[in-house]
Design goal:
2 domains, disordered N terminus, 11 strands, alpha+beta, Ribosomal Protein S5, domain 2, Alpha-Beta Plaits, five-stranded antiparallel β-sheet
């Protein structure tokens, strides 16, 4: 049963926590205001459009695109009155084709809205495609991104007198420690590991060497966490 999730994504890139990111371009007198929001679900993604319609109520277009989920299975876009295919799809492609590392395209849980104030100069279909794509790409160039990783939480029951030493040794070895618990007869250390069998087995071996094989590593649930890129 431990291997049933091996085919799912275990890492992806998203916006750093810290509120919406905004950037504005002027292209042939039209204003293109791009707003990016970290969006864990469709409700959050769609709320960005609603929020910006209220804020920029006099703008002609509020075009949008979003990609959601570790496997990026949810992808939506809207031209919002621009000629079909000239706004939403270029915006979506700017999200899904974004390289977050050389050769790696795994950006997700991001919604983008481009608010356009028409400047009186027609851009044509090709010009609109370039403008909307550039607006999102430039905003992503400047926004802060983080890596999200699915980690397996594992519990370790350690005698109180040994808990500090074992925790320090694990931290020094580069392990990510989660919340510590305290029971009457032992301390419960929790370590967050990459969610794969090899990483868990390596941690078991490390723990055995630290405790002369007297402490057991007990895998528990998984959670997604932000980790340094």
């Amino acid at each position: 049963m431990e291997n049933e999730d091996d085919s799912r994504a275990t890492t992806y890139t998203t916006l750093a926590v810290g509120g919406d990111f905004r950037h504005e371009l002027e292209i042939r007198r039209s204003r293109f205001i791009t707003v990016l929001r970290r969006s864990p679900d469709e409700e959050t993604a769609r709320s960005l459009v609603s929020d910006l319609r209220r804020e920029f109520h006099d703008a002609r277009h509020h075009c949008s695109a979003f990609v959601l989920g570790p496997d990026r299975m949810i992808q939506r876009s809207s031209d919002d009155g621009e000629p079909s295919g000239t706004a939403g799809i270029p915006m979506l492609e700017a999200l899904i084709k974004r390289e977050t590392a050389p050769g790696l395209t795994n950006l997700s849980d991001v919604s983008a809205v481009v608010v356009r104030y028409f400047g009186g100069v027609l851009l044509g279909a090709g010009g609109l495609v370039r403008a909307y794509s550039e607006s999102v790409s430039t905003a992503l160039d400047l926004a802060s991104l983080v890596r999200r990783q699915r980690l397996r939480l594992c519990a370790i029951d350690v005698p109180h007198a040994e808990a500090g030493r074992v925790e320090n040794e694990l931290r020094s070895a580069g392990y990510v420690m989660a919340e510590t618990g305290y029971e009457p007869r032992h301390t419960v250390l929790r370590v967050a590991l990459p969610d794969d069998a090899a990483a868990i087995e390596a941690a078991r071996s490390r723990l055995a060497s630290l405790t002369a094989g007297n402490v057991e590593l007990k895998p528990q649930g998984t959670e997604w966490v932000d980790v340094p890129r």
